[in-house]
Amino acid sequence: EVNAPQRHLYHYSLNRFEIGASLPISDRIRFTVKPFAALARSVDLTEEDYPSAPPVVAPVNNFYAGVKSEIVYDNSVSTGLNLIEGTRGKISFQHYQGLENKELSFSQASIDLRHYQKIYKEIVFAVRGFAGTFFGQSPKKYLLGGMDNWFFNKTKTTGKTSEGEFNPLGYPLETQDILFVEYATTLRGFDYANIFGNSVILANAEFRVPLIRALSSGPISSNFFRNMQFIAFYDIGTSWSGKPPFSSENSVSYEEINTGPDKHFNIKIKNYLNPWLY
Question: pTM of the predicted model, to two decimals?
Fold first, then answer.
C-alpha cells in the first residue's frame, strides 16, 4: 500500500521596516522614496499545535533590503462621495534584494492612470488604466479578478499557467511567494485570482450618476439620497507570464510538450481560450 504524501499547513509572515520621504516638485507632482528592510518567514506546522508546541521543522527565514519609489501626479478635485473631477496618475518601482540568497531578488514596476470627466451637472465619466509587471530572478504574481471590499467574496486557488506555474494561493508545498503576490482589482464578475501571471493589464470605465442630485435644483437634506449613485461599468483585463497575449505566440495560447528519452518528440498545443476577462 502506497500512502499519498501528507499536505502540510504553513504559517507565513512578512515583517517590513520602512522609512520614507517625499519631495514636492510642484503643487501637482511629488516624488517619494522609501528604503526598507524585510523579513519573510514560513513555518511548517505539520501536525503540531503551533505556536503552543514548537514546530518540528525549522522555520525558513529570508532577509531582504530594498527601496520603493514613485512619482504621483494629482490635479483632481473631490466634489462629493465617490465624485471626482480631474486626473490622477502614479508610476512606481520597487526592488527586493535577497541578502543571503541573491536568487530570491525581484523587482516590480507599475503605472496607474485615472481620469474623471464631468458630463452634466455632477454626472461623471471615470476611466482607469493599470499595467504592472514583476521581473528579476524570482518574479512574483499578479492575481487578477474581484473587487476591493467585496462582501461574500470568492477566491480561486486552483489552476496552472501554460508555463506550468501553480496558482500561488493553492501551491501544495512551502512557498513564500504568497507573501508578495498582488491582487489586481477591479474586475467585477470574476473570483479573486481567476487568472494570474507575472504581468497584468487592466482597464475600467464607469458612468457615475448621482440621480437625485442630478435631477434636483435645490439642496437635499438627506445624506442617503444626496450620495446615492447609479453606476454603469465595464472592466477588462488579462494577466500572463512569458509573451504578452497581444501576439499569437504567447504563453496564454500555446503549450509545448517535449517527450521521449532525448526530448526529440515535440507537441505544440494551441488553447483556443480568450486570455481577456471582461
Answer: 0.84
